């Protein structure tokens, strides 16, 4: 059992048009991306605990992933990958 935590930051505010995604859409996109990475590596039944915390305030994204799962693959590495992927998904959301 192990836990991993990683933060990702992205999406600085701009003075551009107001057609940017809503904060709740940003949070949902990041959380879904992080969970997708975790469950691509582990069967859902193998994950003892998963907590994905996403905040998006003033254009700053913060993603924390806590994962308690079997040691193969390394849960810390999977948690870091999940947080990074969440940030990338939000970057893509803003680029769309």
Automatic annotation (TrEMBL):
Q: Which Pfam families match?
A: DUF3194 (PF11419)
- Annotated spans, Disordered: 1-24
Report biased composition (Polar residues) as residue ranges.
1-12
Domain of life of the native organism = Archaea
Matching entries from InterPro entries are given as:
DUF3194, MTH677-like_sf
Q: Which family does it belong to?
A: Belongs to the UPF0440 family.
Spell out the protein name for this chain: DUF3194 domain-containing protein
Organism, by scientific name, is Halorubrum salipaludis
Tell me the lineage of the source organism: Archaea, Methanobacteriati, Methanobacteriota, Stenosarchaea group, Halobacteria
């Amino acid at each position: 059992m192990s836990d991993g935590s990683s933060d990702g930051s992205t999406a600085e505010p701009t003075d551009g048009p107001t057609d940017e995604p809503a904060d709740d859409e940003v949070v949902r996109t990041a959380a879904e991306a992080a969970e997708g990475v975790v469950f691509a590596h582990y069967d859902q039944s193998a994950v003892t605990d998963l907590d994905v915390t996403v905040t998006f305030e003033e254009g700053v994204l913060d993603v924390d992933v806590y994962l308690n799962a079997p040691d193969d693959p390394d849960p810390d590495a999977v948690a870091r990958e999940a947080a990074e992927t969440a940030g990338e998904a939000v970057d893509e959301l803003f680029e769309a």
